[in-house]
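Input record (Table S2, row 250):
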Amino acid sequence: MRNKIVAGNWKMNLDADEAESLYRDLLNKSLGQSDGKMTLIFPPNIYLKDFIEKNNGSFEIGAQNVNAQKNGAYTGEVSASQLKSIGCSWVLVGHSERRTLFNEDDKVLLDKINSALEYGLNVIYCCGESLNERKELRHKSKIQSQLAILKAFSLEQIKSISIAYEPIWAIGTGKTASPDQAAEMHDFIREELKILFGSEASDQTSILYGGSCSPSNAEVLFKCHNIDGGLIGGAALNADSFRSIIEFLK
Ligand code: 13P
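Output record (1,3-dihydroxyacetonephosphate complex):
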């Protein structure tokens, strides 16, 4: 059985007091991890160590980014070995904000995943098309090419990788993909994973939806056969709305 996952990506939001307050709210809500259901949060790096030390096991904590190098002269960067050493267990790779704003290409993303896996971190690998690509009916080929880099990984390695489908036009816009659009893309991703890794590995890979996912649309989205949870941005910055979304995970 594949895991059902709700993950909160805080992005570059919240000052120290606000972050602490949200974190305490989340701890108090005993979000729970059981029966293959998992909750993850991805706060900004500066809060990671403190949060990991205070974690009560309600959720796992990951980093929003990782550098592919182990250490060295990479000013401002954080490596997988450093994240591992503070008890971090997950990392996001391939988020559209990193691909577009920080020019991360396939080679960089591949190196990042390699490094994360080498240090035992689980990866959420994000993919998603732009509005133009969708309008020009290139959304499936875009996702196909983004997933293709995963063929570098073994069946053993793919067990540590989950996918997040995040259409760029839905991120932070309030324009969620319709259940039909999301279901179509998640079915497609599952098929592509099958071509790359076979049925068993494909069946066991969690595929999350991201893009304006909120308490008002999570229920119907999470009912889709191949949607195994969500990667949540804005709605993860409030403990009540994040918790509501988690409760729709069946
Ligand atoms: P929003 O939920 O704010 O649209 O962000 C989605 C996202 O980018 C999560 O990684």
